[in-house]
Structures are given as C-alpha cells and as structure tokens.
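Quick one, T. Sequence first:
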Amino acid sequence: GTRRDVKSAKKPSMEVWSPEEGWKTSEQLVDFVIKNSRDKKITINVAGSGSMELKKGKKGQSYEHNEKIFDDAIKKLKKGGYKVKIISGGQVGGDQMGIRVGLKNKLETEMNVPENRMTRDYNTGKDIKDSKSIKDLEKQGTKVNEIPGGYVPRRKYNIKNSDMTINFYNANPKTDAPAVVPRKKLSKRDK
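Structure tokens:
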C-alpha cells in the first residue's frame, strides 16, 4: 500500500531494511533527505512493517539497528541546520520508532492515526482502539490527530502532508536486500 501510494503521489521514498550490525547507512539516509529537500525545513513521514512480524533474536528482524541509524541521521541533519518534523501513522514498529527518535532529538512529532486511535496489538496483530503506546507518546509531546476512514486514508494523508517517506522494513532473507535502497533499485520480487 505505502509503496503504491507514495509513487502515485510522486513523492520521494526510501526503504530501509534491517541489516546485520555494522552496515553503515545513516550517511545514505542523510544524503537521501538532503537530495530530496527543497529547503532546510522538511517533514519526513516514517512508516514500516508492523512489529508483530519482529521477533527479537532473529537475524535482521529488529528495529534496534534502524533506530540507531535513523537517530544518527537526524543528529547529522540537525547539525547541518535542517529543521525536521517527523510524522507517522502511529503503528507499533517503524511508525512509533520514528516518533521516539524525533522526541529524543527534540523535534516536532505528529501521529496521524486512524479514527478511534486504532493500532495493531504487538502480540496478537489484532486491531485495538486507543492504544497505550499512542497515549504514552502523546504524553511525551507528540501531537495526535485522528483521520477518518481507517488505515488507507491515514496513510495517504501522511504521504500528502510530508516531503518524503522513509519506510523501515525487516531484512529480506530470500534476496539479502541491501540495508538502504531507493525504491527504484529494488528487484521485481521485492516490490
């Protein structure tokens, strides 16, 4: 869904796959953001696969590495004079990881969530209303807006109201996809 919607909106996007420790990717994120910025004030939509797919201890399936490289990239952008705002759909996994990094770096953060503050439960993958994780991030200073109509209208809203989208995904063990690849460089089987 996100790939298709970003493409139809003609907005830049980058996919970040959880790599093995040691791959350097924060520089690639910074280069992508700078290349696709019209000025030094930017809004990044952070999205990704749901955390119910991420089981700790499995190779390449943890957001810890992605959180570190995203945090490093944000620090470098701030040092370079960029004013960054992070928005997301509020889902557990990549969406909330982006918000946590934004809060840690004292950035403006905003979650545009489906009405009833719908998200998926970490353990069961089922939809839940008014999740605790959204409430916790709101208490820390994140603005929360409810977007009517469910997940798809919320996703399109975030794409429309950002300058670019960064999608954080699990590593693809079948293709051994690189850590960070622009969308146009993915093979057909990864699309």
